[in-house]
Amino acid sequence: MDAIHVMAYDLRGNWAGFADVHSPLYRRPHDQWAYEKLNVHDGLLLWEEKGCPAKKLVVGIPLYGRTFTLSQSNNNYEPGTYINKEAGGGKPGEYTQAKGFLSYYEICTRLQTPDGNWTQKFDDVGKVPYMYKGTQWVGYENVESVKYKIDFIKKSRYAGAMVWAIDMDDFQGLCGDPNPLMNTISKGLKGYTVPDKDFPTTPTPDWAKPPSTTSSDNIQTTQSTQTTKTIQSTQPSTTSKPTEKPTEKPETSSTTDGTNKSESTQPPIDTGEVEKIDCKNTDGFVPSKDCHSYYECVHGVPMKFKCPNKLIWQTNNKVCDWPQNADREECKSQ
């Protein structure tokens, strides 16, 4: 089996209702409810608990930051502080032009600007940096936090690291040497040979797996209840403080490569719509009658997905895209 790319980032965002770094290595005191184990360490342990060998897990490291807009009256800048959700994220960067998102080269230049007045902090428990200025709050990765993740990968005997995305690093050397984050990863993993872990992993038995059913239109659905097991963190225990129960994250990912495309990573949806999807001869993508949705054939079973942020499914490039780029005439006015 090939290595599995674990997207251990983008774990927080404007959808959560509070400002936070999107790739914490360990659980912090303010992590509660759905976010209690939503960190790199606990997420990877869950893969191992379900039977995936550590040597097949590749840890994701983001080369971009998630940005937030705080309310005018909020003077609390600690991770977990509440935000103005109606703002839809922090102010767009001058190059990436995406609200709620900044590339690392946009972040480092802000910190180097003499009159920038940004305050930079480091979360010693989550091993990630953040910065703020006025109502703007940014969680990101820097050389120090990347070193922690590389040490974690080698200590935990994982397969290696992957990034999103190479062109988000300071590739022109605006803040010093070019590609500081990529070079940190390269130097940290140079000569690293993935060893086997001393203890074997045991796949989840059939009786512990959630039951699945097949609906009348042959679209597979899975019950949300399943047996879970507490995973002990290797970090020192911390005292939790109560916070308002956060809303669940609609899992989407955005790109800023200049094409304004965004590909959905949402779980399959069940709208009750009946469409006859033929998956016998493909394991790829099939467009839906609905411009905002599409199907993915997985082992002959159609799974329906919906594009985020009112995007439409582009059948030629097989991505979620802006309506003006639609290749179906009826979808251009959606």
Topology of helices and strands:
Blueprint: E1 4-6, H1 40-49, E2 57-62, E3 64-69, E4 101-103, H2 104-112, E5 119-123, E6 128-133, E7 136-139, H3 143-156, E8 160-164, H4 180-189, E9 212-214, E10 220-222, E11 285-287, E12 293-298, E13 301-306, E14 312-314, E15 319-321
Parallel strand pairs: 1-2, 2-8
Antiparallel strand pairs: 3-4, 3-7, 5-6, 6-7, 9-10, 11-12, 12-13, 14-15
Helix pairs in contact: 3-4
Note down, in words, how this protein is organized.
By secondary structure, the protein is an alpha+beta fold. The protein has helices at about 40-50, 105-110, 145-155, 180-190, and strands spanning about 5, 55-60, 65-70, 100-105, 120-125, 130-135, 135-140, 160-165, 210-215, 220, 285, 295-300, 300-305, 310-315, 320. The strands form 5 sheets. Strands 4-3-7-6-5 form a 5-stranded antiparallel sheet. Strand 9 and strand 10 form a beta hairpin. The two termini are about 40 Å apart.
Q: In a nutshell, what does this entry contain?
A:
The protein is α+β, with helices and mostly antiparallel strands. 13% of the residues lie in helices and 19% in strands.
Number of strands: 15
CA(first)-CA(last) distance: 41 Å
> H/E element string?
EHEEEHEEEHEHEEEEEEE
Provide the helix percentage.
10-25%
Share in β-strands: 15-25%
Poorly predicted regions? 213-267
Number of discrete helical segments: 4
Keywords for this entry:
334 residues, alpha+beta, 5-stranded antiparallel beta sheet, 3-stranded parallel beta sheet, 13% helix, globular
